[in-house]
């Protein structure tokens, strides 16, 4: 989908017409996925109307803790990011990538060719657009293109939402990914009193926008939107100094902080699973009892899973210290070598959803406070997956 | 509990002979075999079910290629019988929490066994039992351990398929959390403050309890390299009590060393009854 980097057209959409946007997308054949409340959190799932959005709710987040709370207004998007990310729709948690059937003439090998749903994502935040761009580099822009991801990504329609508030775990400003959406969307909303400033960022966005019952946006509305977006910037308190971070971490592979964090880390995989850029998977062959039908399954996996580094004869990263170090140095350091970008977009999910409150920005800060000898050469191949 | 020895059988031309043995247990795990309704005929086609009293009163004498062993050792008689099962079996697989860690009945390891006998039986002198409930691996060499209370039938089929095709069974050793996230379940600990053993428990059930807003209670036993003390410290700091956490750890896999030791440390720190438990 053509997602330009410039805003092509801006209008005002009244609050009660949000349903029209959803209905229009559904009429165009999209499966609309958006925020909705389930299991005490705002998750992403299929929604059929604006009634299913978490209107009037907000989230309170801190390290290891997430709670829903009622707002004192009826905003539709008055919260930040939750336990789900859009990657579960673009890079499904499990998929059959090949099948084989044994017949009289030998093995019949096939690649499933299912047409995935055309998704419209409603409520995509700036850090999440940045995360999709990171996964684009992984799945689309290297020597091997992932066909499952490509089909879904190409067909997706993105309705972004500019954050108007921040959680204590947010640090997108440090990673320069938000909170303002600057491209990578078809439409972008900023919620203000009485409605939304709606911007189009692509030809597909233009096409939907011109069919919506919008009004021209006046200067007051623009000013309100700007002030609402500034509120999110002002509320961000968490920072991570990204300057020279790659070299800092790779020069401190034996820092005592890794031992300290290993006493707390559960190696439970939660941080990697909620991370919108973590892309690791494992592939296994699953046969029936006769061995005549075999399926090749791909599932989300994690560098915190001890089996993930199993190679012939043993486990390579045989301790929590080495697994945590692998994750952090890959995410923040060797990701640059591999994909020419950081693997972190500053969404803060790994902080909120860590059961024991480990905060990567604190781990980085601790190493920065007492770095080892910088004259040691950076090990640049240590932590690629 | 000794670590299971990973090995595979060399392929053989004839059907493999399968036997199912029961020790101190509730029968739920061996019923998982009968619960393989859709696959049961294929199982019967693929292996010769030679000894399975729960399914048929007809049984064939050993030796057997594969023995599925359910239950823990709690009597002197069973301590001898497991030796004979081992002698008759090429490949011995324990199935379930009782066989792999002593089961829920290993809670008696923390109590006065004789006092239980006096309370329960009118004539305790007729009862011949051991002080402790112990895992099969404490008595004989075990070739593969299948966890769970009860075991998962898909994992049981995986073990049978691997034995038939001569490869090592694939049963993951990671935490339950990974499966919660794959299925999209929201973390009950972070979002609802429910103490959950998921981060230190081996997966296998498919992460069922958290999907019903319940914490994991560890019925598949400890995951690989579980950091139990970090989790229990966290839960104590966020409002859980020793009275909640000790029974959570000392439960279906009470005597598996990581859960046993972490629970014992909680008992000691709470200055509760710390007299029991094997060293």
What features would you describe in this structure?
The complex is a heterodimer of chains A (385) and B (279). With 385 residues, chain A is of the alpha+beta class. Chain A is built from 13 helices and 15 strands. Chain A has a 7-stranded mixed β-sheet with strand order 1-11-10-9-8-2-3, sandwiched between helices. In chain A, strands 7-6-13-12 form a 4-stranded antiparallel β-sheet, with no helix packed on it. In chain A, strands 4-5 form a two-stranded antiparallel ribbon. In chain A, helix 9 (256-264) crosses helix 11 (320-339). The longest helix of chain B has 13 residues, at 76-88. Chain B has helices at 28-34, 37-46, 76-88, 97-101, 113-120, 153-165, 176-183, 188-192, 208-211, 228-237, 242-249, 257-269; strands at residues 16-22, 47-52, 64-70, 89-95, 144-146. Chain B is globular. Chain B has 2 domains: 16-165, Rossmann fold; 176-273, no CATH class. In chain B, helix 3 links the parallel strand 3 and strand 4 (89-95). Chain B contains 12 helices and 5 strands. Residues 272-279 of chain B have low confidence and may be disordered. Chain A binds chain B through residues 38-41, 43, 64-67, 83-84, 88, 93-94, 263-270, 273-274, 284, 287-291, 299-302, 304-307, 319-320, 352-353, 355-357, and chain B through 39, 42-43, 45-46, 157, 160-161, 164-165, 170, 172-175, 177-178, 181-193, 196, 198-200, 213, 224-227, 230-231, 234, 238.
Structure described in brief:
The complex is a heterodimer of chains A (about 375) and B (about 280). Chain A has about 375 residues and is α+β, with helices and mostly antiparallel strands. Chain A has 13 helices and 15 strands.
């Amino acid at each position: 989908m053509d997602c330009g980097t410039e805003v092509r057209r801006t209008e005002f959409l009244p609050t009660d017409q949000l349903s029209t946007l959803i209905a229009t997308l559904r009429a165009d054949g999209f499966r609309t996925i958006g925020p909705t409340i389930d299991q005490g959190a705002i998750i992403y799932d299929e929604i059929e109307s604006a009634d299913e959005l978490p209107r009037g709710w907000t989230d309170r987040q801190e390290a290891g803790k997430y709670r829903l709370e009622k707002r004192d207004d009826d905003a539709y998007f008055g919260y930040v990011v939750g336990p789900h990310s859009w990657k579960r729709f673009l890079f499904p948690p499990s998929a059959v990538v090949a099948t084989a059937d044994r017949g009289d003439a030998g093995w019949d090998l096939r690649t499933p060719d299912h047409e995935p749903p055309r998704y419209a994502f409603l409520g995509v935040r700036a850090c999440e657009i940045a995360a999709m761009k990171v996964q684009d580099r992984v799945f689309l822009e290297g020597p091997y293109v992932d066909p499952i991801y490509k089909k879904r990504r190409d067909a997706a329609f993105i309705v972004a939402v500019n954050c108007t508030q921040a959680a204590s775990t947010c640090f997108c400003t440090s990673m320069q990914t938000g909170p303002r959406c600057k491209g990578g969307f078809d439409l972008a909303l900023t919620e203000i009193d009485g409605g939304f400033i709606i911007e189009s960022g692509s030809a597909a966005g233009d096409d939907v926008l011109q069919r919506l019952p919008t009004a021209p946006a006046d200067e007051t509305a623009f000013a309100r939107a700007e002030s609402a977006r500034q509120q999110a910037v002002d509320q961000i308190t968490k920072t991570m100094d990204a300057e020279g971070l790659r070299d800092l971490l790779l020069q401190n592979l034996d820092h005592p902080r890794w031992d300290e964090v290993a006493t707390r880390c559960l190696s439970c995989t939660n941080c990697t699973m909620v991370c919108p850029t973590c892309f690791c998977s494992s592939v296994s062959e699953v046969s029936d009892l006769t061995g005549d039908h075999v399926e090749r399954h791909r599932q989300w996996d994690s560098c915190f899973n001890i089996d993930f580094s199993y190679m012939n004869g043993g486990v390579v990263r045989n301790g929590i210290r080495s697994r945590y170090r692998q994750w952090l140095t890959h995410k923040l350091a060797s990701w640059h070598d591999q994909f020419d970008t950081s693997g972190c977009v500053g969404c803060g999910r790994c902080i909120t959803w860590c059961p024991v409150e480990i905060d990567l920005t604190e781990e980085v800060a601790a190493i920065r406070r007492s770095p080892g000898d910088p004259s040691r050469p950076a090990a640049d191949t240590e932590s690629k997956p | 509990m000794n670590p299971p020895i990973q090995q595979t059988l060399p392929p053989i031309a004839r059907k493999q002979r399968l036997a199912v043995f029961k020790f101190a247990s509730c029968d739920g795990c061996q019923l998982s075999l009968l619960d393989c309704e859709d696959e049961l005929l294929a199982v019967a086609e693929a292996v010769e079910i030679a000894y399975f009293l729960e399914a048929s009163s007809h049984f064939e004498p050993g030796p057997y290629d594969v023995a599925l062993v359910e239950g823990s050792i709690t009597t002197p008689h069973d301590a001898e019988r497991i030796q004979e099962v081992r002698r008759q079996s090429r490949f011995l697989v324990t199935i379930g929490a009782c066989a792999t860690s002593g089961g829920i009945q290993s809670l008696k390891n923390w109590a006065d066994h004789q006092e239980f006998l006096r309370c329960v039986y009118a004539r305790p002198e007729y009862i011949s039992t051991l002080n402790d409930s112990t895992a099969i691996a404490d008595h004989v060499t075990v070739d593969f351990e299948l966890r769970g209370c009860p075991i998962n039938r898909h994992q049981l089929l995986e073990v049978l398929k691997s034995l038939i095709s001569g490869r090592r069974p694939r049963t993951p050793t990671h935490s339950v959390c990974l499966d919660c996230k794959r299925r999209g379940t929201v973390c009950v600990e972070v979002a609802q403050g429910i103490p959950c053993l998921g981060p230190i428990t081996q997966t296998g059930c498919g992460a069922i309890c958290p999907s019903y807003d319940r914490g994991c209670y560890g019925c598949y036993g400890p995951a690989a390299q579980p950091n139990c003390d970090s989790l229990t410290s966290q839960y104590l700091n966020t409002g859980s009590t020793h009275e909640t956490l000790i029974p959570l750890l000392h439960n279906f896999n009470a005597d598996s060393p990581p859960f046993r030791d972490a629970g014992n440390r909680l008992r000691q720190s709470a200055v509760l009854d710390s007299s029991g438990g094997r060293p």
